[in-house]
Every structure is written in structure tokens, then in C-alpha cells.
Design goal:
By secondary structure, the protein is an alpha/beta fold. It has helices spanning 13-24, 63-73, 87-92, 94-114, 148-167, 193-202, 222-234, 253-263, 288-294, 302-311, and strands at residues 5-8, 30-34, 53-57, 77-80, 119-125, 170-176, 178-180, 208-210, 216-217, 219-221, 241-245, 251-252, 271-273. The longest helix is centred in the N-terminal third of the chain and has 21 residues, at 94-114. The two termini are 37 Å apart. Bound molecules: uridine-diphosphate-N-acetylgalactosamine (UD2). Uridine-diphosphate-N-acetylgalactosamine binds at residues 87, 125, 127, 178, 190-193, 196, 208-210, 215, 217, 253, 276, 279-280, 283.
Length: 313
């Protein structure tokens, strides 16, 4: 029997897509852990009944519970996606942010060492770059975290890479840029802009554009992110380090709006509001390091993915 891989945050937006990608490879067993704090069991509807999938309802930060999971399943690798995902929540709840975004990664890394699990792939964020002026963001840039969230993600990267250097753990820290796609929760004003816009256009409601709409983002489709995660977990010979997960292409909000207006003709005009405090004008990643290491390039054409998202039920 092959050793399974463990996915934390399996019922989340990125987690559920990653589980599907892994199971789609065939011959891979996946143990999915989630405490359903922000994840949703419905996200796993397509995989719950598959024989290669094991569902575990647990808090991935509960070391005792997770030791039992490691003991039982002896995972060959861990994809650690469980996290506090909201930047505003990290400002309101810094202690919780510390626990979920830093202490949990540390605890899982130590369990990997204890149970001879060689590789840990960690969900980091482009937020670690903060207000850097130089674009595109390269992994070698000095990080300037601007939130408790970004600080904890960066600290977790450092812990994991320290364990890599000290004990030979393979720690692969993936810095996601703006991820979008089906199952992203649009319910908060701080949800991903594409999830909010999709929902509002579908309901015939006006969207709000903060600022002049000329801000740009490096939007990457969740199915590409799932593939990057899976390859990072499975490929032999991936070096420990930090890697951007991005497309290398900048798309403005005005361009996004033009695509939506074609998809939903007759929608009400956008409303405009002042730019958000702390909003970054342009965010763009350099995808080169991950391309060199994994042969990974984002493949999903943006306009087509938005069209699919618009029709996703
Ligand atoms: C992303 C992350 C955030 C943090 C940050 C670091 C998401 C959802 N957020 O924020 O967690 O890592 O990067 O830089 O991935 N906007 C509108 N109307 C709306 C909603 C948003 O105009 O209804 C604008 C917003 O002001 C911003 C852009 O759209 O200029 C993208 O907003 P976002 O919240 O999707 O993502 P971002 O890059 O600000």
C-alpha cells in the first residue's frame, strides 16, 4: 500500500481543488484534514466517497490529534493549507493569527520530523512582499510584511526553512498571488475581488470599484494553484525554498470589468469609492523560480476562466 499524502485545510477553497488534483493523478491516497472553521464539507462533495480519500475532522494545530493522524496514516508528504485566511481578521485577532499561521506550521513540521515525513509544502502568500516598489516581485526581494497575517506567513517560512537546513526536511514555501475560482467565498468585503464581482454581476447588482480601477493584480486560477501544490508535493528533487505561484501577467480591475460587461450585458454601472487604505497599486510576481524548479507555468487563460466562473453554479 502506498503511503498517503496529508492535506490540511482540505475542505477550503484551495484545499478542495488540490485534493481533487491529487486524486485525479491516480495511485495517490489523500488524507484530508479540516476543522471546518472556514472550510466547508460541500467543497469535498466530488471526492468524499472515493476509496483513495480519507476524511478527518480535526484541528491541524492540535498536536495530539495530529500525532494520532500521523501515527495512523504515516504520510509521505504534507500539503499544509489550513490557516487564518483573512488579513483583517489577523489585525483583530493577532493571537489567533499567531496560532493558526505560525504555530500550526511549526507543530506540523515537527510532526513531519518525528514521523519521517520528508516533505512539507506550505501555503505562504505574496502578502509577505508588502509595499515593495520593485516589480515583479522576486523571491530574493527583502520582505516587508504590512499585517500580522503577512508577518506570520513570513515567520513560518523562516521556521520551516530553518528545519530544512537543520534536519533535512524538504520545506517548499509557495507564495500565492491573487487566487480566484469556483468555491471562493464572496461573503466578506475583503473576499477576493473576483469572487465578489462574479456574485454581484450574476445577481444584477452594481459592483464597487475602490480607486480608479487601474490597479493591477497577478490573478492566478485555483486549478493552476492546485497543480502547483500537487507537483510541489509529488515531484522528486524539489529544493527547499520559497517560490512564487503566479502568472507573471498583470491585469487591471478595469480590464476585469470589461470582461464582465461582455458576459453580463445590461448590468448596472459600477459604483466608485475611494481607494482602500493600504491598498497596493500594482502586484505582480515573477514566475521564473517555480518554472525552473517544477517546470510549472500557469496555463488557464484569464478571460476564459472568468467566463467559466460566471457560469459556475
Ligand atoms: C490580497 C489578498 C490579501 C493580502 C493582500 C496583500 C485576497 C482576497 N486578498 O489583497 O489577503 O494578501 O493581497 O497584498 O487574495 N476591490 C474593489 N472592489 C471590491 C473588492 C476589491 O475594487 O469589491 C479592489 C481592491 O481595493 C484591490 C483589488 O480590488 O485594489 C484586489 O482586491 P482583493 O481584496 O481581491 O485583493 P488584494 O490584492 O487587495
Amino acid at each position: 500500500m502506498t503511503q498517503p499524502v496529508l492535506v490540511t485545510g482540505a475542505a477550503g477553497f484551495i484545499g478542495s481543488h488540490s485534493v481533487e488534483w491529487l486524486l485525479g493523478q491516480g495511485g495517490v491516497r489523500v488524507v484530508g484534514v479540516d476543522n471546518l472553521r472556514t472550510g466547508r464539507l460541500e467543497n469535498l462533495a466530488a471526492v468524499r466517497a472515493l476509496p483513495d480519500f480519507e476524511w478527518v475532522l480535526a484541528d491541524a494545530g492540535d498536536e495530539t490529534a495530529m500525532r494520532a493522524v500521523f501515527q495512523k496514516y504515516r504520510p509521505a508528504g504534507v500539503l499544509h493549507l489550513a490557516a487564518l485566511v483573512s488579513v483583517p481578521e489577523s489585525f483583530r485577532e493577532p493571537a489567533l493569527n499567531y496560532r493558526l499561521n505560525l504555530a500550526m506550521a511549526d507543530s506540523l513540521a515537527r510532526l513531519c520530523l518525528e514521523f519521517d515525513c520528508r516533505r512539507l509544502v506550505f501555503a505562504s502568500s505574496a502578502a509577505v512582499y508588502g509595499a515593495t516598489e520593485v516589480l515583479p516581485n522576486r523571491e530574493s526581494a527583502t520582505p516587508q510584511p504590512q499585517s500580522p497575517y503577512a508577518a506570520a506567513k513570513l515567520a513560518a517560512e523562516i521556521m520551516l526553512l530553518g528545519y530544512a537546513a537543520s534536519y533535512g526536511l524538504e520545506a517548499i514555501c509557495l507564495r500565492y498571488f491573487n487566487v480566484y475560482g469556483p468555491r471562493q467565498d464572496p461573503s466578506s468585503p475583503y473576499s477576493g475581488v473576483l469572487s465578489i464581482f462574479t456574485e454581484r454581476f450574476r445577481c444584477g447588482l452594481p459592483v464597487t470599484v475602490y480607486g480608479d480601477g487601474e490597479q493591477t493584480r497577478d490573478f492566478i486560477a485555483v486549478r493552476d494553484v492546485a497543480r502547483a501544490n500537487g507537483e510541489a508535493l509529488n515531484r522528486p528533487g524539489v529544493a527547499s525554498g520559497r517560490y512564487n505561484v503566479c502568472t507573471g501577467r498583470a491585469v487591471s480591475l478595469n480590464r476585469v470589468l470589461a470582461i464582465y460587461r461582455e458576459l453580463f450585458p445590461g448590468s448596472p454601472p459600477s459604483e466608485h469609492a475611494a481607494a482602500r487604505i493600504g491598498d497596493i497599486r500594482h502586484s505582480l510576481g515573477d514566475p521564473e523560480a517555480l518554472r525552473r524548479m517544477l517546470g510549472f507555468t500557469a496555463e488557464t487563460p484569464f478571460a476564459r476562466a472568468l467566463r467559466e466562473l460566471a457560469h459556475w453554479a
